[in-house]
Design brief:
This protein is α+β, with helices and mostly antiparallel strands and 805 residues long. Among the domains are: 1-85 and 148-219 and 327-385, 3-Layer(bba) Sandwich (FAD/NAD(P)-binding domain); 465-486 and 574-673, Probable tRNA modification gtpase trme, domain 1 (Gyrase A, domain 2, 2-Layer Sandwich), CATH 3.30.1360; 488-572 and 678-693, Alpha-Beta Plaits (2-Layer Sandwich), CATH 3.30.70.1400; 717-803, Elongation Factor Tu (Ef-tu), domain 3, CATH 2.40.30.
Amino acid sequence: MKTHTRVLVIGGGVVGCSVLYHLTKLGWSDVMLVERSELTSGSTWHAAGGFHTLNGDTNMAALQGYTIRLYKELEAITGLSCGLHHVGGITLADNAERFDMLKAERAKHRYMGLDTAILSPAEVEAMTDGMVNTAGILGALYDPLDGHLDPYGTTHAYAKAAKMGGAEIVLHNRVLETNPRPDGSWEVVTEKGTIIAEHLVNAGGLWAREVGAMAGVYLPLLPMAHQYLVTDDIPEIVARGREFPHVMDPGGESYLRQEGRGFCIGFYEKPCEAWSVDGTPWTFGQELFNEQYDKIADSIEFAYKRFPALERAGVKRVIHGPFTFAPDGNPLIGPVPGLRNYWSACAVMAGFSQGGGMGLALAQWMIHGEVERDPRGFDVARFGSWTTPGYTVPKVIENYQTRFSVAYPNEEKPAARPFRTTPMYDTFTGLNAVWGQQYGLEVVNYHALPGEPLYETPTFKRSNAWEATKAEVLAVRGGVGINEVQNFGKYRVTGPKAREWLDVIMAGLIPKPGRLSLTPMLAASGKIIGDFTVSCLSETEFQLTASYGAQGWHGRWFEQHAMDGVTVENISDARSGFQIAGPRARDLLAKVTRADVSGAAFKFMDVKRMTVGMADCIVQRVSYTADLGYEIYCDQMSVRHLWQVLTEAGAEFGLRPFGMRAMMSLRLDKFFGSWGREFSPDYTPCETGLDRFIRWNKPVEWIGKAAAMAEKAAGPKRRLCAFVVDAVDADVVAWEPIWVGDQVLGFCTSGGFSHYTGKSVAQGFLPVDRIADGLAVEIEILGEKRPAVLVTEPLFDADGARMRG
């Protein structure tokens, strides 16, 4: 066993072996893996081995497609069999909402190049020789890539391919300690000796929490007990003569595939059981739990009705073992914030659908510094330091129980809530607030009208929030609205080199004292990793604001690019306040401060310190509502006072609270983009229009400059556009295909209803050479093509007179 390595991977399951292989594939051969027992000895060995591409996150779906295609490559490289069975998969829809979800997924697949299809009940029966009872089924989604494999053979194929690329694997060698060294490397003490690793990867699976604890890291994951059954031979399968497709029956919370000449069927049952909540014993090995038929009795009865042949089959064996889940069910991948060269590769529950893609993503991250595709959906940094076991356990249980539930775009799941709240929580609750959650924080979505339920109905169509949201939008446009700014990420940058650091890390103009600017933050590839408002309070003090949900992502980037003479503080939860917006916003602000806030004295994009009421505040003249507006920041101790002052003074102007639903409608009037929708690591400034905020002639080498300059010179191949859609009862959400004639040439990034203009609006990408004002297109919403027109002039305040006046 060598004592020094570039990368040490801890854990020999399918994910650890995939990471090891992909590191060698991308050019790093001095890599090593240690495993406490044998390869596959955690969750991998008893997995059902199914794989599929279906995933609501298009980047995850693409990486799952990569994973599936990779298996033949592994077989060709190693000569080992992965036991591949490409049998195709059918996902059933037993209600209109689930069918809407499948039609939306099919629409996404059009521009992703996935050859899926919507099936009728009759087609399902024909494909399964009548072995699926389609009573109550409205339709299904078919994916020819779905299938299953041999978990043991596949993991060993990854391992052999890695060793062929120079990797070393040491078995029966438990890690005892992981100690950080001053140079950023790690001292890893194992049963067979000490290894110095330049990079450390935690792929500990069931033991990832224990491995993380050695480095002082809490990883939010939990093992869940999961069981599936394997039946005796079934005559209909024997007579069929060809393999049976996978069938997912979300209504019955089950998945089914052929195993030998019988069936394998598994369940995501309610109630479910968390296992080893307080830690996985190191003595746990290749063991299974006793079967618990009582837990799945109702699910089995349902399955007998859906798959009648099951009822006549005996049970050959029951596989009941633990798998790890994160609170939202997605993997925990990437550099762990706060630690140098420590990487997570954990909570990959669907290891044979996602393991290859996750290995590729992590290897790209380690070697190139970024991932080819936007990793935010699986980035370990999406959970902050606020995440605790008390939060993780109920969220994981909720996720397990709803794994086959319809995933609505507006759904706010209730487990582990409310958790993190501002001083305004009770006040807004008293004003009929309907709450959402962002990065653990309770955020007002809208205020229900009198007599309306304090709950937004999950749907793919227009929800019961419609009238309340409309009222809030019209209040802003007609008078003045107020909204809490707690859900902005906020950072205080200080020090003698603050401006120098910002000039390097941001692509745009760093403003002079008393001014603010909008600027993208780019990766080396030129991709967007943040869109910021930068406020210059003095030459040595700046305030940055961005997405609240991106704190982990942005904070880690700031750590990785730290500079002597600069201090960056995350003050997101220390500094709060309100934004006021609308044509009477200036009148309101003038009533509560002695400062001169006239248009001449307080211009658009100005920032001033001023006293509002009795509170010391930082006030920025900018608003995401596309209207005249101000963001007023204060410390948390002053928030309730600031609210009282503003609401009392605002009564004569009809001041009305508004939430995120109204905010998202208001921004559409001006075609403003949104982080995670229009602005993400999948896109560039030249594609999205953020290039207008880049300071191209800055005399410094800002991060991403070379790539951005190259794209500027060549010109982007696609650009973000806006559309007015002839929608009926459902608006664009995201990822809907854009048809030009009989071709899918683009996709939507977001959309919604502009209550002020009474129009359904969408944003999305089209090839540059097809963009023209008035271009007629069709946007496929829930499987139905809706006419739309490309528009280039904003629907409100096109000349900016109101916002800037």
